[in-house]
Task: inverse folding
């Protein structure tokens, strides 16, 4: 018996009857030999961590554009916090921790530079639209490894595609990530907003704090405990009604006070204009795109999609550097 087979047997014997077992995976888009050490979802997690798109998350905006300070979240630290929440919940419920972790680590791989500002810009200007969850799946299927993709399992791809509020993941592990994402960004975006002087703890309405706690840490702990307690022994992942309602109110509060706050988001219009300008430039100058993107057009991908892929994959810093390179005059050195 291989190490992988022994781990699969352990899952079968130990995990909840509602867990997604590695041995029961629906497989990959392309067949490949199984690993003798790692079950399929662990292998997916490793592929995501070693991908270029994962490394680029370190320089992509979470909420605050290029903040001055070492402790504000980036898209990478957001992803790690989602992963930690998901692993904690999955382990407590005896669900498949490897699957939950892989989905969490991959859920934002297709996000644009400048956070949702970049996403809005590309969605507005690209004929096919742009949604970061769809682009995350496209990233792991096509864009990674120069067009080969990561060939992830059906279950991980489903969880990535359906991680947003409107999504309907087909596994409990995917549903855990869907909640973990909201829990993470509500928690850390408020923490960053307090750090940046946008909010104080006293600003949070009492009808929320009386249910889920007075501080960001208390609320994070309460959300996770409630989700675990309310989901134990069930073929469903859900919060209790009072806590679910408190989370919705807290999310609405964050949209009103942070996500649309002109002090916090005042530079986003510039970011959107920068994204649109880069898109329009590369539409006119596809000959300067990297070779792998030109090959995609040669293989039949439409120009609009390829340019959207290229601009959408940029980091904040790279997008700004490219804009400066193209449009800002340089000093003459003689």
Result:
């Amino acid at each position: 018996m291989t190490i992988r087979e022994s781990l699969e047997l352990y899952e079968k014997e130990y995990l909840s009857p509602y867990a997604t077992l590695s041995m029961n995976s629906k497989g990959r888009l392309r067949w490949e030999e199984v690993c003798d050490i790692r079950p399929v979802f662990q292998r997916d997690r490793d592929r995501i961590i070693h991908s270029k798109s994962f490394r680029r998350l370190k320089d992509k905006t979470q909420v605050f554009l290029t903040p001055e300070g070492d402790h504000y979240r980036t898209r990478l630290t957001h992803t790690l916090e989602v992963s930690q929440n998901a692993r904690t919940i999955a382990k407590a419920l005896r669900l498949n921790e490897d699957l939950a972790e892989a989905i969490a680590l991959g859920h934002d791989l297709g996000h644009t530079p400048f956070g949702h500002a970049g996403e809005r810009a590309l969605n507005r200007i690209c004929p096919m639209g742009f949604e970061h969850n769809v682009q995350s799946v496209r990233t792991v299927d096509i864009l990674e490894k120069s067009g080969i993709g990561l060939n992830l399992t059906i279950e991980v791809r489903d969880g990535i595609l359906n991680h947003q509020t409107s999504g309907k993941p087909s596994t409990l592990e995917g549903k855990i990530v869907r909640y973990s994402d909201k829990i993470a960004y509500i928690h850390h975006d408020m923490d960053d907003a307090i750090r940046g002087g946008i909010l104080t703890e006293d600003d949070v309405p009492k009808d929320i704090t009386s249910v889920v706690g007075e501080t960001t840490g208390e609320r994070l702990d309460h959300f996770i405990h409630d989700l675990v307690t309310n989901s134990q022994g069930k073929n469903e992942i859900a919060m209790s009604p009072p806590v679910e309602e408190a989370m919705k109110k807290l999310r609405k509060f964050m949209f009103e006070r942070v996500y649309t706050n002109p002090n916090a988001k005042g530079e986003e219009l510039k970011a959107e204009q920068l994204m649109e300008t880069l898109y329009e430039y590369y539409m006119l100058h596809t000959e300067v795109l990297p070779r792998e993107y030109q090959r995609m057009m040669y293989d039949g991908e439409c120009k609009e999609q390829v340019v959207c892929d290229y601009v959408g994959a940029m980091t904040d810093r790279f997008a700004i550097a490219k804009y400066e390179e193209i449009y800002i005059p340089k000093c003459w050195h003689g």
User: Anything to note?
Assistant: The domain at 33-265 is CATH 1.10.3210.10 (Hypothetical protein af1432).
